[in-house]
Write a structure and sequence with these properties.
By secondary structure, the chain is an all-alpha fold. It contains five helices and no strands.
């Protein structure tokens, strides 16, 4: 059965959500490293799928502007994300002790699940870029 790009992205998001939620409960270092490796690989693949979807849906003459905005948002996320998650991680540890240790990981799992849901709801036109051909005005 062919998944298509949307199905594959939804599968990636679901797997990333599961690994993010499992990670804080792994007991040994090797298991944690393996789960972290899987979660990171799927997160990178999610980013790649997002770029594919964007380039398939945006007409060629507008791609530079859209990719510029996307890069700006990505950069802001990379600047704010680690600071925010580190703060939340420290806050939940100080308030809830050991049980609070999983809060950030579960939050990441929710974000990955949202990606999976969003990817599954994208229009068919993101599969092949046919929207670009239809959007180009002669």
């Amino acid at each position: 059965v062919a998944l298509g790009l949307r199905g594959f992205a939804a599968l990636l998001g679901t797997a990333a959500a599961i690994t993010s939620c499992v990670l804080p409960f792994t007991r040994d270092v090797l298991g944690a490293n393996l789960v972290q490796m899987l979660a990171t690989s799927m997160t990178v693949a999610e980013g790649s799928m997002t770029m594919v979807f964007t380039n398939n849906i945006v007409p060629p003459e507008r791609r530079s502007v859209v990719n510029g905005v996307a890069t700006t948002v990505d950069t802001l996320g990379k600047a704010i994300g680690p600071v925010g998650t580190s703060y939340l991680f420290a806050l939940t540890l100080s308030r809830y002790g050991r049980p609070g240790h999983s809060f950030v990981f579960l939050g990441l799992g929710v974000l990955h699940a949202a990606f999976a849901f969003g990817a599954s709801r994208l229009p068919r036109t993101v599969e092949s870029g046919s929207a670009c051909a239809a959007a180009v005005v002669p």
